Amino acid sequence: MGSGQSIYAGTPLECMLNNWKAFRRQADYGTPLCKDDLIKFCTVEWPTFGVEWPAGGTLKLKIVKAVHNVVTRDGHWDQYPYIDIWQDLTANSPPWLRECRAQAIRALMAQTPGQRRGRPPVKKPCPPVVIPTAPDPMPPPPVYPGLPGTPVAHHTRTETVPAHELPLRETVGPGGDLTMIYVPFTTSDLYNWKHQNPSFSEDPAPLTTVFETLVSAHNPTWGDMKIALNTLLTAEERRLVFSKAKEGLVAGGEDAANIPNVLPEAAPNWSHTVEEGQNYHRRYALAIVQGMKRCIRKTPNWAKLYNIRQEKTENPAAFYERLCNTCKRYTDLDPEDVNGKRVLIPLFIGQSYEDIRKKLQKIDGASGKNIEELLEIALKVYDRRDDEERKKGARLLAMALKGESGKGGGNTKGQTGLQGKGRGSRLGRNQCAICKEEGHWKNECPQRHNRREGSRNRTPPKLFAFEWEDPD
């Protein structure tokens, strides 16, 4: 690993390896990326595509795009994440890659002619895709028709790999016949869909809509769906979608033994040039979309529904509509369905405002009545509440006016009452409490001693009607 890396010192490949964390974080395809795979693809596979890819890699966008086209056209899906990230980095050039460009130029200028001759053999460039004017001849039979391919051969170029086209569209061929041509969706589309929508686990609906549009507008093949799923969904999300897709096929009457043929995990040999193969591709894509739709069903959150209370000034019809909207959003019940109304009517009665709740609870069999009848009764209570408020306000105003008119007479009466009880007015500041004269207080009053003497000579009152006398 280390020695192999030193051979390509100063090349774009070494730069990508030295900044592996940034390279790996550039996009998430749901599969782990490995340095050894990048080295193998860059030094062994891509130089054989006939697009002048050097063994140490390149930052020329034209060559990178050419390799990207060959990878997608020939269905090398294991190489797709690496070349796709490489193309995105080359097009956008983060700061660490700008330094790599300078290093690549210096390394290229330092190379000797002898170093440049040690390249792997270059295959003949692939011919451009043309619209056939006549049906292709049948391929010759295999030399060993009964011999299955070995696992090793499956991962080499000696194994025949079916070419998987990207989205197909119908057009008129040179002979006037309708035929299917290849119209790829770009990588930027996938990135935009990924960044403009929430994750599938958070909210499955937006990405499900994206896949529905993709299926209806592009006629994607198995390979297209594979790329889109790997880019937009995580590994766990993909497992959930495939599980739900299989459930949907079984629920639709599909034989369980035939499901692997409808949802193959490996690249199938479905031709897009014949109607049968097109049907297979479309059936696969529709099964995936149906699986995504089955994931939209959310876990009910009944607490949201039970926590709603009617405000005092809220119209009963508006309150019931708020209950219905919460039911749609946080539960799997339909407010228009019988089961939905069976749940909502008791909540409407029990969570209405106090006066409306008391009125509805007095009705016999209120839970079994139609919501229209209950709303009519609630609206009567709601409207009557305004009349009662106006009457209450009028009574309070009358009481206030009555109190103001009797305020003056009350004071006069109170003063007269006090005088009638014999309580005189308050003493002045310099007035005597005994003789009531001004100029001295009671301690200095000359009548003080006379008053004390009189109180001493006063005969105490008898406590009984008779008193005991000594007979002697």
From TrEMBL:
Pfam families: Gag_MA (PF01140), Gag_p30 (PF02093), zf-CCHC (PF00098). InterPro entries: G_retro_matrix, G_retro_matrix_sf, Gag_P30, Retrov_capsid_N, Retroviral_Gag-Pol_poly, Retrovr_matrix, Znf_CCHC, Znf_CCHC_sf. The lineage of its organism: Eukaryota, Metazoa, Chordata, Craniata, Vertebrata. It comes from the Eukaryota. Residues 443-456 have a biased composition (Basic and acidic residues). Residues 431-447 form the CCHC-type domain. Residues 406-422 have a biased composition (Gly residues). The keyword Transferase does not apply. PANTHER family: GAG_P30 DOMAIN-CONTAINING PROTEIN. This is CCHC-type domain-containing protein. GO terms for biological process: virion assembly. GO terms for molecular function: nucleic acid binding; zinc ion binding. Its main location: host cell. It is found in: Host cell membrane. Residues 404-426, 443-472 are annotated as: Disordered.
